[in-house]
Amino acid sequence: MNSLMKLMTTAAILVATSALTPAFAANTAITVGMVLEPPNLDPTSGAAAAIREVTYANIFQGLTRFDENGAIIPDLAKSWDISADGLSYTFHLATGVKFHDGSPFSADDVKFSLDRARAPDSTNAQKGLFADIASVDVVDPATVKVTLKKPNGSFLFNMAWGDAVILSPKSIATEATNPVGTGPFKLVNWVKGDRVELAKFDGYWGAAPKLDKVTFKFIADPSAAFAAMMAGDVDAFPLFPAAETLEQFKADPRFAVIAGNTEGETLLAMNNGKKPFDNIKVREAVAHAINRKEIIDGAMFGYGTPIGTHFAPHNPDYVDLTAQSNYDPEKSKALLKEAGYPDGFTVSLKLPPPPYARRGGEIIASQLAKVGIKAQITNVEWAQWLEQVFKGKDYDLTIVSHTEPMDIDIYGRDNYYFNYKSDAFKKIMADLSVTTDPAKRSELLKAAQKRIADDYVNAFLFELPRLGVANAKIVGIWKNQPTPSNDMSAVYWKD
Amino acid sequence: MAPYLLKRLISLVLSLLAASVVIFLVLQVVPGDPASYMLGMNAQPETVEALRQQMGLNEPLVWRYLTWVGGLTHGDFGVSYTYKVPTGELIAQRLWVSLPLALYALLLSTLIALPIGILSAAKRNSAADYGIMGVTQLGIAVPNFWFAMLLVLLFSITLRWFSAGGFPGWNAGVFVALKALTLPAVALALPQASILARVMRSSLLDTLSEDYIRTARAKGLTRGQTLVRHAVRNAMIPVLTIIGLQFSFLLAGAIIIENVFYLPGLGRLVFQGITQRDLIVVQSVVMLLVFAVIVITFLVDIAYAIADPRLRSRAR
User: Fold this and answer.
1) Is the alpha carbon torsion for A202, A204, A205, A211 positive or negative?
2) How far is A46 from chain B (nearest CA, A)?
3) How close is the nearest chain B Cα to the Cα of A342, in Å?
4) Closest-CA residue to A287 (of A263, A270, A310)
5) Engineering a disulfide at A350: which of A398, B158, B218, B293 sits with its beta carbon 3.0 to 4.6 angstroms away?
6) pTM score, two decimals?
């Protein structure tokens, strides 16, 4: 009887304390909502943005990294020297760095990680980032030298990607489910389908984060995401799926709406290799048939910057070419007539799942109809889109946001799904890859933007915004998204 | 009894085998490659090839089928392509949400439906009967996800009594876990209870017009006694059948409710598996559900045979 009483008292205390804990811990714990659950937590073997949204700058670190505005700053490499010929990079590494399993970090881990990413059997989704590396040599435990095959102006940029993080050879086999990095937070628990829990890593080498606990909660349904924010189950939702409710959050003093940029150029892509889009006049006609403002207002609730080429408007090298493809249905009709389609034509428009594509697609179809182009909408899943549109090039029109940063080089790729073939463009890219002088690089980048705008490769719509909602008391959540990330290292609650 | 059982058992095994072939083939036909999906738009073809090799996707079709079915026979569901953990583990975790949720909803639905169904039949054509019929008609007509949203609006956003969703896990305590399942269970139970109440009512009305009810009344039992001792008992057989069917439905069909309340249940596992082309997870979960439905049907068949001797003799 006595022991039963004891048990019950203990239970009562446990219940009472567990009910009280959130009130005390509220200042150092945060729950962040995400739409998609990461399939696994290894950013070096999978492209899913959700993997980086959990791990980038939280669990894993690279030699360099992106800051909130996309600038490249030192991470595990404190500093670096670049040889005069631009071929060798000597990285001076941070010291006293430990992995979450307690093992020390050294130049050997850098060599291991980079060599693994570029190996023949590598499953790195961005293997191209490492293509120019000729060799990686350990100089001493705190120095590593990377030699390139040819000068590469974007090498430090490449090393900042989530795919280029440094891993420990010891934990490599279980990285997918039990990631071991050098970052300020370590994985504590992953309840599949529900949440990932991170805790502050006490052995962290840099400035200690202000939060003790970060929970990423996965809520796919837009109305559920809205309810979870409203009910206070989630403290922040950096990529909020229910844009239509943002006005409501704006009006509510409990919340702050965070609107920033991503690196996502949203396009109405045209199959340049297929009739009728093999004709530049037709492509130009499509470009003039599109009213960007209507799409941004209708599909994005007013958020998003119009673009006239495939380049991020917040980039200093951006050229505003929107006037070249302004909304002009009369010109569009005239061009169609010139191209031999006075009565227009019928094409397919394949739409992947994101709201910008599905909502935007409806609006674009009606805009095209006004100049005589009948676009038949087919909704496809991502896996289908990748297989049919991206790989199979079996499409006429599609809407998609290209979220990789600085990816204008895709227009120079052979066999890419746009089917765009331009030797002039390829020449610019070839020059760019061996140019390290900033002024010359800028010139080339501008020329590249003009080239694809002049060729009307695609109808360039808008730069995808990053739209988030957070509790008004939270400070430090990234506004922009230079790379998929929810960097929690500087986030805190103000009183 | 034995030959009847044997016959049912053979048909059970054949159904499972047929189902496994159909499920496997259908998923092979679906467009989309798991490796391309995982590596995204910037991947190089050789990288995709390396991953396909690693995932075992380059093995011949028949060989992949046989490995999968061979594994299933001893409880090995294979390793998930995307999560990279054993599928059996994933399913077990999800069952700990889906199974209690289905039972909870079923319990609620039965507890609500039986009394009101009986009341409705006993007081036929009364105001109570009309009221109950009206409400249950509404319960069937209202989509459960919409009802779920209303519940969230009232109890989570306005009153803040419940979380808007999510599942803390059983480690957080039985009470906390059950609380998290309450709104979803209510949302799931409403249409089921409405159907069940109507079945209870009509079945009871049928029984009440039987001769033996008149006999029971004639031998001096009151209306209430007749109802409880003879009518309700005999009216239960169709009701039990419906309860069995509802259980299978609740286990497999709660996907929309799981989405509204972002519960990590089986339905969402399948849904996620389909979008990510995690074929091994999809085929294993679907197979498990087929297995559950077939086994439940098998058990119901046996129960019928026990209850009704005529079935046994016919099988012989």
Assistant:
1) negative
2) 5
3) 36
4) A270
5) A398
6) 0.85
